[in-house]
Design goal:
The structure holds two protein chains of two kinds. Chain A is α/β, with parallel strands linked by helices. Chain A contains 17 helices and 15 strands. In chain A, a hairpin with a 5-residue loop joins β10 and β11. In chain B, the strands form three sheets. In chain B, strands 6-1-2-5-4-3-7 form a seven-stranded antiparallel beta sheet. The chains are: A alpha/beta, B alpha/beta.
Chain lengths: 468, 279
């Protein structure tokens, strides 16, 4: 055994763009470690014989292994270990909630300074990008078999399942509804948090494994799931994402200037409305923007609004900050950039002008009562606290319901009472023969990495099934 | 990439593209639409399917030049490509035996109503079509709509061709004089609104094809939400056909006007770049 390491609690911090500069540009906020910083952070790892971190990783990465390779300066080996389990490390290193996963189960988390696993993962992925010649020879030689698998959706679940099956020798076709691959990684998560060039490079890696991608293919419309199976595919993995945005169901919600977070983010990220008029898709921002909700999507929408030129951006949330589902890091980033949190506040109605455009929102205050079924303290309205706030744009960011296109066009697919596809968690199997499911369509809105974990389990089960 | 295999100019500012899209052609039904993007920086816009040919593997769309996107599309020739062509989207028009069906269409929507009239007739209905235009120069497909209708009425706002007036006038006369099973009205929002108002007192169900602004067209963004019977619906997945008597028309028109200033700005820039490139 190696000599016992001294515990070092100085987590190497992430270099970032300064808040004042970054709130007006769409460039990536976190700049990434240098080689020296990465080695310094990697050296803090205790390399325990029974590491806690792997237990916290939904895709079972050999975390101490790739960290050891970094501290030894053996970057090609770090890349190999990481990619053995994760085809999308540049994405995961940026958007995984490590603080509730691998970093939470790191022994040093107890001392308040877990190894910065996400930052190291990102470093390795970006290093590979900068040194393509070093890993080119590592490309696996795949012996293809004669079985074909169709994957519906090119988001995190679809890409992961496709890559794992391709590595096992299956011929995989991904059907993507939009004109660009990546799903939520492309239309949802903004450029400043996850550059689209990173998404495209990881998609290219998946394609380099022999995966074919068909854009503009909405399964359920251009072909049903059964037609896909009849067209020569031996199995189908459904990963179409969560789909339909939820609204507040209050008066005035259809006024012009009220955007779902999905629409606001899609216009900005997918259609590049922040480059209007060079790009043709417009977006309205105005001076005062109110975003409703407390999740990561609300943070993304509010930070996009700032970058699009809004003067004042509010997050209106009915509970307190402790109950917010958004990651601490994203809340901090938003606050640093000047997003104003209006907590314990809820909207009652939107008020329009004579042209039918939103001009104000009526809000009221809340207080917290006893914990509800989610374990969080239930927000209760405080009577007589109504007040009016002028706004130019409103963005409800309340999560999504399952998109009905696949469920409504596929026979024999059992649904849950939430409209998601009934899926066995361990195997990804649905009630329909030859059909698997993973990601938000199986679980309701969740994280990128949990979708990827589900996709990996489904890939294992599809392989077992097709091998008979 | 999707090739334009044929182009036809139907009337000033109204163009037809036949697009090679065999998979879409196989699944298309009357009343459905496609999402089209012309180039890398372009918008995604919905266009109703005007026709399709499964054997040839083609889908026909008809569009009117209104803003930057459609003016850019109008610059494309046969042999050029659209960068994206997604469909068939939305629910098909309900085709059934209703007795006598009136198909009303205004302007470029004539192209959309043809497959619906044809399907209605094939289902055993008597089809009376009314087509309306602003003026004589804009008239197209009179024969084509006539060939799938039992009767055809043509109106022009200025009286320069056939009957002078709006489509709502013959619509009202027909509703007054014979028993009508269903009205289908497709065209500019204002025309659909007034057709619905005209038929409402007669209690004849009137189906309209709504055309709100869309982005993805798959139910993901909610941009196309409309209010029908006081319920919010997404036109892209719940429609585009709705009961015209239940539609909140003012809301639809307000939402359609959301980007007027941006559309104007974009068009000015594009026109400037076109005139400087011509020089």
């Amino acid at each position: 055994m190696a000599e016992k390491k001294k515990i070092n609690l100085h987590r190497v911090s992430m270099p970032k763009q300064a808040p004042d500069a970054r709130k007006r540009n769409f460039n990536e906020v976190a700049l990434g470690y240098t080689f020296e910083q990465a080695v310094e952070e990697a050296n803090r790892c205790l390399q325990l014989p029974k590491p806690g971190c792997i237990k916290g990783c939904p895709v079972d990465i050999d975390i101490p292994g790739f960290i050891r390779a970094i501290s030894e300066g053996n970057m090609p080996e770090a890349v190999r270990i990481l990619k053995d389990k994760n085809s999308l490390p540049g994405i995961c290193g940026r958007v995984c909630p490590q603080e509730t996963q691998c970093e939470m189960t790191c022994l040093l988390a107890k001392k308040g300074a877990p190894i910065a696993i996400g930052r190291l993962e990102r470093y390795v992925a970006d290093w590979e990008q900068a040194h393509p010649e070093v890993t080119a020879h590592q490309k696996e030689r795949i012996q293809f078999n004669d079985k074909r698998v169709a994957v519906i959706g090119s988001g995190p679940a679809g890409l992961t399942c496709a890559a794992d099956l391709a590595k096992l020798g299956y011929r995989v076709t991904i059907f993507e509804a939009l004109h660009v691959t990546g799903g939520v990684l492309t239309y949802g998560i903004p450029e400043f948090r996850l550059p689209k060039q990173i998404v495209q490079r990881e998609v290219s890696y998946v394609m380099s494994l022999g995966v074919e991608i068909k854009l503009d293919h909405i399964i359920g419309k251009i072909a049903t799931v059964d037609e896909v199976l009849q067209n020569g595919y031996d199995a189908v993995f459904l990963a179409p994402g969560a789909g339909a945005p939820m609204f507040l169901n209050i008066p005035g919600e259809n006024l012009s200037g009220v955007y779902s977070a999905n629409e606001f983010l899609t216009r900005t990220n997918l259609m590049k409305a922040y480059l209007f008029p060079q790009y043709d898709t417009p977006i309205k921002v105005g001076k005062r923007v109110a975003v409703f909700g407390g999740g990561n999507v609300a943070m993304d929408a509010s930070r996009c609004a700032l970058r699009l030129g809004a003067k004042e951006v509010y997050i209106v949330y009915r509970r307190s900050e402790v109950e917010m589902p958004a990651r601490a890091e994203e809340r901090e980033n938003a606050k640093e950039e000047g997003v104003i949190f209006k907590l314990l506040t809820n909207p009652k109605r939107f008020i329009g002008d004579e042209q039918g455009r939103v001009k104000a929102v009526e809000l009221y205050e809340m207080e917290l009562g006893e914990p509800d079924e989610s374990g969080r303290r239930r927000p209760i309205p405080k009577p007589g606290t109504e007040f009016i706030m002028d706004i130019d744009i409103a963005i409800p960011a309340l999560g999504t319901r399952p998109n009905p296109i696949i469920p409504s066009t596929t026979e024999g697919l059992e649904l849950t009472r939430w409209g998601t596809i009934k899926t066995d968690e361990a195997t990804g199997r649905t009630s329909k023969e030859k059909v698997w499911c993973g990601g938000d369509m199986a679980t309701g809105a969740a994280t990128v990495i949990s979708a990827m974990g589900a996709a990996k389990r489904a890939a294992v089960n599809i392989d077992a099934y097709l091998k008979g | 990439m999707y090739q334009i295999v044929a182009r036809e100019d139907l009337s000033p500012g109204i163009h037809l593209f036949k697009i090679k899209a065999p998979e879409v052609a196989r699944k298309a039904h009357p009343g459905q639409f496609v999402i089209v993007r012309g180039d890398e920086k372009g918008e995604r816009i919905p266009l109703t399917i005007a026709d399709w040919d499964e054997e040839e593997g083609s889908v026909t769309i008809v569009f009117m030049e209104v803003g930057t996107t459609t003016k850019k599309l109008a610059c494309l020739k046969a042999g050029d490509y659209l960068i994206n062509f997604v469909g068939p989207l939305g629910r098909p028009t309900e085709i059934d035996k209703f007795g006598t069906v009136i198909c009303v269409a205004g302007g470029f929507a004539i192209a959309t109503i043809v497959p619906i009239a044809r399907a209605m007739r094939q289902a055993g209905n008597k089809v009376i079509s009314i087509m309306g235009f602003r003026t004589k120069d804009l008239v197209f497909w009179e024969e084509r709509l006539g060939s799938v209708s039992d009767e055809l009425i043509v109106t022009t706002d200025d009286g320069s061709y056939k009957r002078k007036g709006l489509v709502t006038e013959p619509l009202k006369e027909l509703l007054q004089s014979i028993k009508i099973g269903r009205v289908i009205a497709i065209g500019p929002t204002i025309m659909m609104k007034f057709c619905s108002l005209t038929s409402k007192p007669f209690g004849v169900k009137t189906i309209v094809s709504l055309n709100p602004i869309m982005v993805d067209g798959t139910g993901m963004c909610g941009c196309c939400r409309v209010s029908v019977g006081n319920q919010t619906k997404f036109a892209c997945v719940d429609g585009p056909d709705f009961d015209g008597h239940e539609v909140d028309w003012d809301l639809l028109m307000n939402r359609q006007r959301t980007y007027l200033s941006e559309e104007k700005q974009s068009l000015e820039i594009w026109e400037k770049s076109m005139s400087s490139s011509r020089r």
